[in-house]
């Protein structure tokens, strides 16, 4: 009757005492059942030798809770040829060339020079792209951002003063010698007083027809005129002006305001300060450029129709163009 090896018998006895099967131990050791069986029966030819065999025995003893040293000692006594691994080194002639002889090879020299050149090229390219302190080209192309300052409110232009009439200086009297006495003239025939009165009245009528009416009118073009409501008792009929291709701008001032109206050529048709309760009127052909100061206190009518100044008003100043 053959007996089990001491090492394998001790492992198998402890396993059976713990009611463990060989498959349980194989699962814990991550081994196959046949390898566990070979360990317990001492069939070491089915297992790796040397260090691997000792490792299997040591792990098996630790899994079932035994001290691995006595088991390893028993393994050494029963199979000393499997306890230590044999290291076999194949003997062959190995030639060791000196370093100087290797570097003397022209191929080695060429490879070394090529390696140095490639390294220098890569270092130069890296310095040129990432290290060189020069502004990127994109910085020069992008224009600087211009932050517009808030537009200041344009002050109202100073009112244009009307020209004042300056009386000419009176010349100093010059003393002159008395002229010589005129020769006696023949007495003229005196006309009757009624004839003289008729002549005077006819002369006054002709003078009145020739002189224009006293109104504040400034002609900017053949089709444009400016009238002051204070001096014109009757306003112009807007329908007739529109039918003729013109426009009538009428302004009513509830408070003190300033107004300036220019024609399409930039000529000033009206530029003055208006007092509250006054009116102003511009007649002509457009386009008209209109600026009204203190616009909330002004009502405007275009061809006898109300014209809203509020959409064109900023900071109490209305600016717009009428075609």
Automatic annotation (TrEMBL):
Location of the region described as Disordered in the Swiss-Prot/TrEMBL record: 170-233
PROSITE patterns: HTH_CROC1
All residue ranges annotated as the HTH cro/C1-type domain in the record: 11-45
Compositionally biased intervals (Basic and acidic residues): 188-207
Start-end of Low complexity biased regions: 208-231
PANTHER family according to UniProt: CYTOSKELETON PROTEIN RODZ, PTHR34475
InterPro entries per the UniProt record, alphabetical: Bact_Cytoskel_RodZ, Cro/C1-type_HTH, Lambda_DNA-bd_dom_sf, RodZ-like_C
Bias (Pro residues) ranges: 176-185
GO MF: DNA binding
Protein's organism: Usitatibacter rugosus
TM regions (residue ranges): none
Gene3D superfamilies reported in the protein's UniProt record: lambda repressor-like DNA-binding domains
Name of the protein in question: Cytoskeleton protein RodZ
CDD domains: HTH_XRE
Alphabetized Pfam families for the sequence: HTH_25, RodZ_C
Superkingdom, natural source: Bacteria
